[in-house]
Specification:
Blueprint lengths: L8 H10 L4 E7 L17 H14 L5 E9 L5 H10 L4 E5 L2 E2 L2 E2 L14 H17 L5 E2 L16 H13 L2 E5 L14 H9 L4 E4 L12 H10 L6 E3 L2 E3 L1
Parallel strand pairs: 1-2, 2-3, 3-6, 6-7, 7-8
Antiparallel strand pairs: 4-5, 9-10
Helix pairs in contact: 4-5
This protein binds zinc ion (2 copies).
Enzyme class: hydrolase
Protein name: Histidinol-phosphatase
GO cellular component, one term: cytoplasm
C-alpha cells in the first residue's frame, strides 16, 4: 500500500510458503503526518484496510504459515506523538523504527543521491546515528531498521564511533536490529548491517530479526541463508516478535 511496491499480501504469503519459511511479518511503511514523505506510504485513512487485509491472509494461511502484522515506522523528531497514536490503534506484532531522512533530505532516495557529494560523510553519519540513538530512546519501536542505510549507494562511514555509540544505546534500550538483506540488492552490495557492525551488535547482546525488505513477492526471504551465516559468524542470534514480545 506504500505506492512503491508490487503484489498483494496474499502473494507475499504464498511466496514465503514457497520459500520454505515458517512465517512472515508484514511491515508496510506506516502512515505519517500528511506533510511527511506522503508519496511513499499509505494514508492514515488506509490503515484499517491494511490491518483487515493482513488479518484475512492470516486466516487463509492459518496452520501453514505464521502471518504477523507489523509496521516499518519512521523516526523523525517531532512526529513521535502521531506515531505513538498509530501504534496504539491496533494490535501490532512487530514495529521497526527507521531513519530515512536527514532534515528534509530523503538520503536513501536514488533521485537525491547527488547530495552525498555536497556533504561531509563523517558529519552525515554522526547526524544519522544520533537520530538512530534517538529512535532507540523513544521506546516506540522493537528494532532499528537497516542500521547503516546511508551506505546504500556506496558512501561508507569513514569513522566508527557514532555507529558504536548508537549500538550502545540500542543495547541499553533493549531493541533488536533488523538484519536487512535488501542491501545485497543495492549498489553497496552488502546487507545492513555490515559484517563489522553485525559483530559489534552481537558483542553487545543485540539480537537480529531477519528482514528482506521485500517490495515484490519474489524478494520475500531474499538471501536469508547468507544472512544467517553472517549473523552466526558474528556470534549473533535471531529472534522474532509476536504481540510486540520477543521470541527466541
Ligand atoms: Zn519501501
Ligand atoms: Zn526503510
Amino acid at each position: 500500500m506504500c505506492g512503491h511496491a508490487q503484489g498483494t499480501p496474499r502473494e507475499y504469503a504464498q511466496a514465503a510458503l514457497d520459500a520454505g519459511l515458517a512465517g512472515l511479518c508484514f511491515t508496510d511503511h506506516m502512515p505519517m503526518p500528511a506533510w511527511y514523505d506522503a508519496p511513499w506510504r499509505m494514508r492514515l485513512d488506509q490503515l484499517a484496510e491494511y490491518v483487515d487485509t493482513v488479518r484475512e491472509v492470516q486466516a487463509e494461511f492459518a496452520g501453514r504459515l505464521e502471518v504477523r502484522l507489523g509496521l516499518e515506522a519512521d523516526f523523525h523528531p517531532g512526529t513521535e506523538r502521531f506515531v505513538s497514536q498509530v501504534l496504539n490503534a491496533h494490535a501490532w506484532d512487530y514495529v521497526i523504527g527507521s531513519v530515512h531522512y536527514l532534515g528534509a533530505w530523503g538520503f536513501d532516495n536514488p533521485e537525491y543521491v547527488a547530495e552525498y557529494g555536497d556533504r561531509d560523510l563523517g558529519q552525515l553519519y554522526r547526524d544519522y546515528y544520533a537520530l538512530v540513538a534517538g529512535a532507540a530512546r523513544t521506546g516506540l519501536f522493537d528494532s532499528i531498521g537497516h542500521l547503516d542505510l546511508p551506505k546504500k549507494f556506496g558512501h561508507r562511514d569513514p569513522e566508527q564511533g557514532a555507529a558504536l555509540h548508537a549500538l550502545d544505546v540500542v543495547a541499553e534500550a533493549g531493541l533488536a536490529l533488523d538484519f536487512n538483506t535488501a542491501g545485497w540488492r543495492k549498489p553497496v552490495a552488502e546487507a545492513y548491517p555490515s559484517p563489522g557492525l553485525t559483530r559489534a551488535a552481537a558483542e553487545r547482546g543485540i539480537p537480529f530479526v531477519l528482514g528482506s525488505d521485500a517490495h515484490t513477492p519474489g524478494e520475500v526471504g531474499f538471501r536469508f541463508t547468507d544472512a544467517l551465516r553472517q549473523i552466526q559468524d558474528a556470534g549473533g542470534r535471531v529472534v522474532t516478535y509476536a504481540g510486540r514480545v520477543r521470541h527466541a
